[in-house]
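are you around this afternoon, could really use another pair of eyes. what follows is a protein written twice so to speak, once as letters and once as structure tokens for the fold. i want to understand how the tokens follow from the sequence so walk me through it. anything you notice is useful, everything is just below.
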Amino acid sequence: MKVRIVLLVLVLALVAAACGGDEGDGGDGAAVENPERIAYLINGSLGDQSFYDSGQVGIDRLEEDFGLETRTIENGFDNAKFEASLQAAVNYADLIFVISYGFEDLLIRYAEDNPDKLFVNIDTVVEAGTGNIVSIDYLEEEGAYLAGVLAASLTTDESVEGTNPDPAIGAVAGDESPAIKAFTDAYTVGAKSVSDDIEVEIVTIGTFEDSGKGKQAALQLYDGGADIVFQIAAAAGLGVLEAAEERGLYAIGVDSNQNPLQPGHVVASEIKDVGRSIYEAHERAIGDGFDDSEILTPGLEEGIIDLTFDDNEDVVPQEIVDQVGQARQGIIDGDIAVTG
């Protein structure tokens, strides 16, 4: 299982305080009644065509479907901006979706100081007794396991154009945080489930923005014999996809469908549908609310996590697609452990 930054969210009763209204329609947990404004506070930047952009899709849907005013606050990985950005979000919105990597303690303090606001913390779990923080802790390791099955199946299939005789795959990781380690560990386990002889090399580049570093790392892996490289580096990983096209080899995208970005070379993308989870969390917040101590853990079964072959120019043989599908069902049924 993923090593979580913290282990528990205590979500106590918060009913309709954000708008000064009466108690909601039967909800017994954290809720807001018809918020007029929502904020999306991200530690990075939009434009990654991956994780952050996926969340923005959900924010845009809420604006369109509910007529909400929305504000997206980008920190561009500048730690010095985060507290001011959090204050700006609190000043603006009743319901705040926040990606708080490295700032969990700060989020707790602001939640304590603003009990009339509801915070939905994305991609980590925050421990708090404030009653107004909910966490979404994705089971991204399930999709990463499928990526490993795919990569290993391709590198051992002699019919796949361009692959070399030695079974070797790689991954380019933005950092070594628990969330990213969940990806790389499950990717390796998935690959080894196909064959213990698969060589798996992980390169950590220390950035989620520098696509040049992502490309350089991927070229290093391809030139070292890897046939397929999984990018787990947000915008920096776009360089991985470029390297796949340049070498005439293959990559796996992350968080959004990146298959069309380098046609015929991005064989699949691991999906983490942040936008849909934001949309559904809003529906819960204005409806029945969240149960006390609830942590949302969407994965393959909920359709938030998956591996998509859409728009990949059918470069993956159908038998491998079917093999991945069988692994998907095995995970959902509880027959496959994705962490070994």
Remarks:
- Confidence is low (pLDDT under 50) at residues 1-28.
- The chain has two domains: 17-137+274-296, 141-272+309-332.
